[in-house]
Amino acid sequence: MRVLIATATAGAGHLQAANALEEAWTAWRSEDRVQKVDVLDYTPAVYKKAYSDGYAKVVAKAPELYASFFESTDDPVLARLSSGLRRGVGRTAARGFVDLVAGFRPDVVLAPHFLPLEILGGARQDGAPLLVSVVTDFEAHAFWMDPGVGLTCVAAPETKARLVARGVPARDVAVTGIPVSPRFAAAPGRAEARRRHGLRDDSPVLLVLAGGFGMGPVAEVVAGLGRAAGPLQLVVVCGRNEPLRRKVASLDHPHPTRVLGFTREIPSLMAAADLVVTKPGGLTVSESLALGRPLLVVNPIPGQEAANSDFLLERGAAVKAGRPEDLPARVKALFSGGRLAQLARAARKLGRPGAADAVCRLAFKRAGGKG
């Protein structure tokens, strides 16, 4: 079977999901041809920069503008009416991607971003590959609902219910969880993870994450956590944002603090942590839940991250700090009594460490695969 995994790097989570799907499929069926691509690599440089960098800049500098766009376009009727225009623009800009698909002739296209669906979708046709929409947040925006999609994989039963209520046939929606790397299922235990990273086993570990691109008020969050009482250890991951890493490293740190840039050790760092402090991106949330780690949510982007935050809060797997100055009180409350243990139990129940494998197996079966 020929499998194309097509994503777009508008936010690091979509690429992480694509990597997880590639890992899972190749581990399960090494004989298949699997190719992973970023659709934006097949567009003009100015288009790629506007699409990728534009998203990051808008959510960082004008989140209210992004919220307005998200809400105004999250309408299935409007999305359907505008799909022809968006498809035409996408196919024109990503002509090289369209040619790649024609030459590769995939049986299945796994899309952890909606842009490939816009380009390849439309009315379902005989002989066309199975398009699989792999939704990477706990709420599915209308842009994921392309009529050419044959299977939609979602995070939770509530996500499926919303899509079905909007007109997607229930048989075409599967609750798999959001794909995370198989390495999270193989992460070490807490004690071993702490030994691996040189962390003490007699005081709590807070893991502060800024995402792959290093976004959000991380320095302010670290400063707020520095005012929290009690023995704490902080590990701060700033992603590929080197100026942010230097800024955080230069702060005064009342608690033992390790400041990292981009790292591939997130599974073991999460395993070592008692609490993950982060913006609630869909992949980061799913990785934390896969290891049963509760979250302290800060600064969610209006739109999908706000929906992710609401999902966690409603199910008792997270608490939220509206401002960095609220962090000391939140941390004190969590580490006093049994509240943190309650959150961890809720997180563990929600975790789906095998989501990537589930997506691959369902897609294989839906595409007519045998074995």
Describe the structure.
The protein has 371 residues and is an alpha/beta fold. It has 2 domains: 2-180 and 354-366, 3-Layer(aba) Sandwich (Rossmann fold), CATH 3.40.50; 183-350, Rossmann fold (3-Layer(aba) Sandwich). 46% of the residues lie in helices and 15% in strands. It contains 16 helices and 12 strands. It has helices at residues 12-28, 45-61, 63-73, 76-93, 95-104, 114-120, 157-165, 190-196, 218-226, 242-249, 266-272, 282-290, 304-314, 327-334, 339-350, 355-366; strands spanning 2-7, 33-38, 108-111, 130-134, 149-154, 173-175, 205-209, 233-237, 257-260, 275-278, 295-298, 318-321. The strands form 2 sheets. A 6-stranded parallel β-sheet has the order 2-1-3-4-5-6, sandwiched between helices. Helix 9 links the parallel strand 7 and strand 8. Helix 1 (12-28) packs across helix 16, helix 2 packs across helix 3 and helix 4 packs across helix 5 (95-104).
Layout of secondary structure:
Elements: E1 2-7, H1 12-28, E2 33-38, H2 45-61, H3 63-73, H4 76-93, H5 95-104, E3 108-111, H6 114-120, E4 130-134, E5 149-154, H7 157-165, E6 173-175, H8 190-196, E7 205-209, H9 218-226, E8 233-237, H10 242-249, E9 257-260, H11 266-272, E10 275-278, H12 282-290, E11 295-298, H13 304-314, E12 318-321, H14 327-334, H15 339-350, H16 355-366
Parallel strand pairs: 1-2, 1-3, 3-4, 4-5, 5-6, 7-8, 7-10, 8-9, 10-11, 11-12
Helix pairs in contact: 1-16, 2-3, 4-5, 4-6, 8-11
